[in-house]
Design brief:
Length: 575
């Protein structure tokens, strides 16, 4: 027992030293301030970021573009982009640029910016700020260091059997934190961030003065997990900043208007359990205290029944998830969204994430040559074989142009294509999208198969060689290699709604028919789902309003290292 206590003490001292040593390291990690007396200015890859309060918000796009043009005329400035989500201006400049003059230009333009309308500030989300700033890391390091000190003090006090605070003090704090009605009421008055910091400090102080090391040890473990999460997020931002600095336009972003949620976010499993357990614990305390068992037994029941476990579990999971996401290249802009993952029961998927603009051949049905009898048992031997037909089809559909300029799936029948005597044209018949007819050249069996392909969402085409039909083929959008895995993961969260994409794509995943996208229809779908009491996650590439209004917005930038478009208005941006 003595050896284990000594080992634990040595480990605690070592962890304390490491935690306290991280504080000056965090302070030094930001590098020197470019100019003394210039607040809100940080060095980053390729230039600096300067904080703004008004520019980048809804309705300030013209002023933001004007500031960018003005900054580009400053000597030494090669690039200027306003980002409403970060609440800053990225200025690409060299080491000899007069940063004080640049900051003055930004401050003057920001002061002259449009003042938000009354009530708009409350609806809009607060800017993220500079993701590489040291404040978050310093705060996490200080909390970790304070926790380690608290563990040491509480352990010494417990070993010496010093009198501590009455257990009722700690139980009241824990009950107020764990009962959703009480905690939510405090959060509405002083804010979620202040509430979280206040309860953390109160728990740490009360646990220390009560000389109960177990409680402060749990708090310290969570503080260590939070510190690791912050470290991982800063590392992810450093990598993103290097890549964004090399591609003009990637920082530019105008925030979308904020909207209040049409209905409260539904409670998760932890909230549902706490809503039942907290009143039961309080009732047990009341009944026991007025009986013959005494206050000590009643207080023990209250402490044992206080539902603290769900909050501890959620925080530990969110820290682990944030760290894992950051280490895998995702940029977590708002870590608070990870704390409500258990309240998400509906996922809205952008079809552009599942299928690209390339085509794949789903099936080929050879046709008998002209003059042969339909019941003759198959095509003639002198016709092209299946391999040649596949090769010719691929040659024709690959001529659709570069991927960025190719025709979007679902935008009408495929245009006729010709090359070296071969041709692709829409299959005849109203069932497949064409009003032409080939008379007896198309057998009833072939037409039925073509109709089936069309119902499954494929583009049915007729393959001709020298003007003679030789086969019918079904072309379908080529799926992303991880498309089925993404849909399977979304199904694990609850209901899946597909938006956009070509007709019939939902059939390949067993989903409901896709909802049309564009013209704010995806954002309207999100609001309607929220009004019905759902927690909604949106996984998309460009639906800015839907991503901003979702309870969890996950923006994808595609398969390349740095995209031309970054979905800044999300809770999480990933590759």
């Amino acid at each position: 027992m003595t050896r284990s206590a000594v080992t634990a003490t040595v480990s605690a001292v070592r962890s304390l030293a490491q935690g306290l040593a991280a504080v000056p390291a965090a302070l030094a990690s930001t590098g020197p301030v470019p100019q003394p007396g210039v607040p809100g200015l940080w060095r980053t890859s390729g230039g600096v970021q300067i904080a703004v309060r008004r520019l980048g918000r809804p309705g300030t796009a013209a002023a933001a573009r004007g500031l960018e043009a003005t900054l580009r005329r400053v000597p030494g400035v090669s690039r200027a982009e306003v980002n409403g989500t970060l609440g800053c201006v990225y200025v690409g400049c060299g080491p000899k640029t007069d940063l004080a003059a640049v900051a003055d230009v930004v401050a003057a333009a920001d002061a002259a910016g449009e003042v938000p309308r009354a009530g708009a500030t409350e609806r809009e989300r607060r800017p993220v700020g500079f993701p590489g700033a040291a404040q978050a890391r310093v705060g996490a390091a200080v909390r970790l260091g304070a926790g380690l000190v608290a563990v040491g003090v509480a352990s010494v006090g417990d070993a010496l059997r010093l009198p501590g605070l009455h257990p009722a003090v700690m139980s009241v704090i824990q009950f107020a934190e764990s009962a959703p009605p009480l905690r939510d009421g405090i959060a509405r008055r002083i804010g979620e961030s202040a509430t979280e910091r206040g309860f953390a400090g109160a728990n740490l102080l009360a646990g220390t003065l009560s000389f109960r090391p177990l409680g402060v040890t749990v708090t310290t473990v969570l503080a260590a997990a939070r510190y690791a999460e912050v470290q991982a997020r800063r590392g992810a931002w450093a990598d993103w900043a290097r890549r964004l600095a090399g591609h003009e336009g990637t920082y530019r972003h105008d925030a979308v208007p904020g909207h209040k949620r049409p209905a409260p976010l539904p409670p998760g499993p932890g909230e549902r359990y706490a809503n039942v357990a907290a009143p039961v614990a309080l009732a047990a305390y009341g009944l026991t205290s007025v009986g013959t068992f005494g206050q000590d037994r009643a207080l023990s029941l209250l402490i044992a029944g206080t539902p603290r476990g769900p909050r501890f579990g959620r925080e530990a999971f969110a820290c682990a998830a944030g760290r894992a996401l950051s280490e895998r290249g995702a940029l977590v802009l708002r870590p608070e969204v990870l704390r409500r993952l258990d309240r998400i029961d509906t996922v809205v998927l952008d079809a552009r994430l599942l299928a690209g603009r390339d085509w794949t051949i789903e099936g080929v049905l050879r046709l008998p040559p002209p003059g042969s009898r339909p019941e003759g048992g198959g095509p003639a031997d002198d016709g092209p074989d299946d391999d040649e037909i596949h090769v010719r089809i691929h040659e024709l559909i690959e001529r659709d142009g570069p991927a960025g300029r190719r025709r979007r799936h679902g935008a009408g029948p495929l245009a006729p294509k010709r090359r070296d005597g071969w041709e692709l044209r829409p299959f005849p018949g109203p069932e497949t999208g064409s009003d032409d007819t080939l008379g007896d050249l198309v057998l009833a069996k072939t037409a039925a198969r073509a109709r089936q392909w069309a119902e499954e969402g494929a583009q049915v085409v007729l393959v001709l060689r020298a003007g003679t039909p030789v086969a019918a083929a079904a072309l379908a959008p080529q799926l992303h290699p991880l498309a089925h895995h993404l849909v399977r993961a979304a199904r694990a969260c609850g209901e899946v709604r597909l938006v956009g994409g070509p007709p019939g794509l939902h059939l390949r995943f067993g989903l409901e028919e896709a909802v049309p996208t564009g013209h704010r229809r995806t954002a309207a779908l999100v609001r309607s789902l929220q009004a019905e009491g759902h927690g909604v996650a949106v996984v998309s590439t460009r639906t800015r309003r839907a991503l901003a209004r979702a309870d969890l917005g996950i923006g994808s930038v595609g398969d390349v290292g740095v995209p031309r478009h970054v979905p800044w208005g999300t809770g999480r941006t990933g590759l």
